[in-house]
Amino acid sequence: MHNCEIICVGTELLLGDILNTNVRFLSKELAAMGIAVLHQSVIGDNSERLANEVRTALSRSDIVITSGGLGPTPDDLTKEICCEVMGFELTVDKKVLNNIESYFRSKGISMAASNKKQAYIPAGGTVFRNDNGTAPGAAMEKDGKCLILLPGPPRELEPMFIEQAKPFLKKYSSGSIISHTVRTMGIGESALAEMVGDLLGNKNPTVAPYAKDGEVLLRITAAAVDEKSAHELCKPMIEQIRARLSSYVYGIDTDSIEQRVVELLSEKGKKIALAESCTGGYIAKRITDIPGSSSVFDCGIVSYANQTKVDILGVSPDTLEISGAVSKQTAAEMAQGARRAGNADIGIGVTGIAGPGNDSSNKPAGLIYIALADKDKTFVDKLITGRSFDREYNRYVASSYALNMARLYLEGFLGG
Amino acid sequence: MHNCEIICVGTELLLGDILNTNVRFLSKELAAMGIAVLHQSVIGDNSERLANEVRTALSRSDIVITSGGLGPTPDDLTKEICCEVMGFELTVDKKVLNNIESYFRSKGISMAASNKKQAYIPAGGTVFRNDNGTAPGAAMEKDGKCLILLPGPPRELEPMFIEQAKPFLKKYSSGSIISHTVRTMGIGESALAEMVGDLLGNKNPTVAPYAKDGEVLLRITAAAVDEKSAHELCKPMIEQIRARLSSYVYGIDTDSIEQRVVELLSEKGKKIALAESCTGGYIAKRITDIPGSSSVFDCGIVSYANQTKVDILGVSPDTLEISGAVSKQTAAEMAQGARRAGNADIGIGVTGIAGPGNDSSNKPAGLIYIALADKDKTFVDKLITGRSFDREYNRYVASSYALNMARLYLEGFLGG
């Protein structure tokens, strides 16, 4: 398997002014081609450091890809440095020069003299034309090493890679690396790792847990001669994990819990209604993120005030007086009220303290009650996030928990 | 000036599964402290490559910061490798162990044995406690070099850096680079650039426009011997920009338009209520993201279905029949209905087509009506986003537009 290294050139990356989306794009593409990316690095517009980085990269990797530093200004140095390191001459390419001139003509502006610098290409290399800008890319091969130069702007780099660099790299491709993701909720990373502990040392596919706010993902990655075989390798592993983790698994390669809930509601022809206090519309927002959610969701009430809970949801003033707004009983009545107000099959009610810090009651921030009501029964769960000062986390995790409760109900795991 | 190198550890970064937001966050913070980041790199969970990278980094940089690889699983190696390279022993820290145990207790789950690994810290180093997870961070100093270990999840890394690593690094800081952001809405990037065109070439502070979904930011950046002097350099520039852009400016260094709206409502002692159709709870979610929003926001209705618009908001069935759900008149009645249902001073109503693609009516996705009602008047605006296939963009921009309408009203710019 060939290995590859990506060097992104740009002071704006070192200053943290922009996110490095190029490296993610290239890494994902290369992984799918079966080319292993073992190093990524970022370097500024400095000739000495850049030359060192390129030399080091070529000493340990078969393929080196750079992005950025191909522009017309004097601090764009990548092409010059890379040619020096690889021992290639730079010569003017008439065709590239014509392309640059006609690019400017098409935009109705005249070409600056500095743009002529971009028409110089490595003699004996391969040129990648730039359909979305003026800097061409290039590839150089020598002594079993391959160096590829790509422009920095994503809208130039991405099509140039897909249409020209990727076909060029095909000969270095060795099979495919494919990843699948098993998504779970309701179990912590360590507890999950213990349930599948013996699988975490597996070689092909590999299995790696990865915790994200309120959920744990298991990434199954296989390498094989082609995509199909890589998928085949993943399959039995996914089935084994799914069997062990049972109801904790909410989806395989699913985008999100809300995606799964909308799918389940559609399949079963059921509608959901919401009554949100501490999540303040977050669950409604997440459900309506999904195209087509209008067929399963009619009505959500954000009842931040007690009066709204009474007026619109029909929560009893006695309940609010005796149990308080943040209580099991209030959550239950909110879920029932949402179901009624929205003429839905299922109602969800969420009430809690989002933080940061505690409120005037003696209840801690991060304490949240979540209820689900159907026509016969009401289920209520209590969630303690343990992060009293993290409002965003508490609200996100509470909304996830509520969505997962709906998922468990629709899959027949609740109160079974 | 001290220089610094950032090493992010994680196979998921090499595979392009996630965007590297940590490196951007750290680079930005370090630049503001006057610490020069000259290299960024990413390495997988591989002990040999990681050890080589750390050794190289320490040979050329004063400060090396790692992120990731501090978890409880066997492939989390960063701490072990870094201690080996720096020549520090690992010892169990009782306090850290207690913290981890109580973290699990607070969540009502028992600690897995593997989590004990996280209680080992470099003997003679400085420990950074983790308020948002179980892996502590650490700093080691030896022979004029400083190595800092931070956890991978941004939610853990960011507060740990700000509260503990940043004060620790203060002694390496030299001079300051300070940025301020003028935030505008209601004007495009090119039009704005023309209004402040002569300022964009300024040297210190620099002024750079930066377009973000539905708004344009101007970043003013000054370099000086200390923070105070850098702020002083920015001040007159900010005032000049504010004077020119007038009502387009909604805040200086404000986090968001929702932050500004909640501030204005609080100042003026007014309450807002919402009726959301295409934004589906997004506005409610954004308002309730702000701590303290409960004093200005009681009630939001997500009326995805026509029946909900009639039943809860009192929109006239005739209006829906004649003008349609996506119309100026429906938006107006929704705003009025929200105001009534929520007993509020101001009601907001939003109805439109979020996409992707057009719905069964002949109206295009990205067409959205936004209304604001007070006790006397109702204002309605029509927004055409022009991106029919971008549901998230349409919903976000519509919610921003509605929030900006509330801001303009509260500042006296609407219907003045």
**What separation lies between the terminal Cα atoms of chain A?**
50 Å
Could you state the CATH homologous superfamily of the largest domain in chain A? MoaB/Mog-like domain
Low-confidence stretches of chain A: none
Largest sheet of chain A: 6 strands, mixed
Largest interface: A-B, 90 and 87 residues
**Helix/sheet category of chain A:** alpha/beta
Number of domains of chain A: 3
Reading off the top of the CATH hierarchy, the class of the largest domain in chain A is best stated as: Alpha Beta
CATH topology of the largest domain in chain A: Molybdenum Cofactor Biosythetic Enzyme, Chain A
Question: Helix count of chain A?
Answer: 14
Strand runs of chain A, count: 17
What portion of residues of chain A is helical? 25-40%
Tell me the quaternary state: homodimer
The largest beta-sheet of chain A arranges its strands as: 2-1-3-8-7-6
The general outline of chain A is: elongated
Cα Rg of chain A: 28 Å
User: How much β-strand is present in the residues of chain A?
Assistant: 25-35%
CATH architecture of the largest domain in chain A: 3-Layer(aba) Sandwich
What does this entry look like structurally?
The structure is a homodimer of 416-residue chains. By secondary structure, chain A is α/β, with parallel strands linked by helices. Chain A has three domains: 170 residues, MoaB/Mog-like domain (Molybdenum Cofactor Biosythetic Enzyme, Chain A, 3-Layer(aba) Sandwich), CATH 3.40.980; 77 residues, Alpha-Beta Plaits; 154 residues, CinA-like (Maf protein), CATH 3.90.950.20. Chain A has 14 helices and 17 strands. Chain A is elongated. The relative contact order of chain A is 0.08. Chains A and B meet through helix 2, strand 2, helix 3, helix 7 and strand 10 of A and helix 1, helix 2, strand 2, helix 3 and helix 10 of B. Strand 14 of chain A pairs antiparallel with strand 14 of chain B.
